[in-house]
Amino acid sequence: MAPGDNRVHGVQEEEEGPGCCTTVLVFCSYIVFVFTLPFSLCYCIKTVAEYERAIIFRAGRLLPGGPKGPGLFFILPCIDEFRVVDLRTLSFDVPPQEILSKDSVTVTVDAVVYFRVQDPTASVLNVENYKRATELLAATTLRNILGTKTLAEVLSHRDEISAGLQSQLDVATDPWGIKVERVEIKDVRLPIQMQRAMAAEAEASREARAKVIAAEGEQNASRALKEAADIIAESPNALQLRYLQTLNSISAEKNSTIIFPLPIDILAGMMKK
């Protein structure tokens, strides 16, 4: 028996053993088994796969020895019943939940939960349908957790919300012998009006940032022009060289005749005055 079985089944171990009626039924069941050989072997010999365990009840009482399997196990006719529990990791989708966030925004959220049976005996004795119970608990816990979050937190902190949801589900399902391994939020759907408002806000933010970037560019360009003007002002010949470079670039880009009303020598004389 697993270590957790003593904690879960301590009450059953303190109860009295089977009564006289049960003992007589067991004796009669053995007699039926012997007198119906070999046909009774088809009913009394069962098998479970590597990923399964069998919980046996004899006259309604849990049979000592813990879960049976994997492999073959024996049951008595007429008085023994058994339940087979799958130990593999199972998953289910949490239906979309309409949740009112902390900042009064209605969102629709769905998730997926991965879990497995850790204690087969507890999953049979302590809950009627462990999968259905886990599904309902996951939906309730999802609403409770997201109700304490703002819309921005729901959209940006999915990993933290998933971890908190997994932790709370794991603690709540531990008495059922269930281990919640992972919880993932699949989708967060917003109302159409909220989507339009968020899109308009994002567009306005992008436009404001573009204007700031353009203003910073103008400021840097003005500063560079000022520095260039200061350098040219220190040397009059630099202005004449810049003038000649401009003529060269104009003639290279546009093959046309350019007429200057004033010769460069006159401009140079005026600059000296």
Automatic annotation (TrEMBL):
The keyword Cell membrane does not apply. Pfam families: Band_7. It comes from the Eukaryota. The chain crosses the membrane at residues 24-45. Keywords: Membrane, Transmembrane, Transmembrane helix. One of its GO terms (cellular component) is plasma membrane. It is found in: Membrane. Signal peptide: none annotated. Its main location: membrane. Residues 43-202 form the Band domain. Belongs to the band 7/mec-2 family. This is Band 7 domain-containing protein.
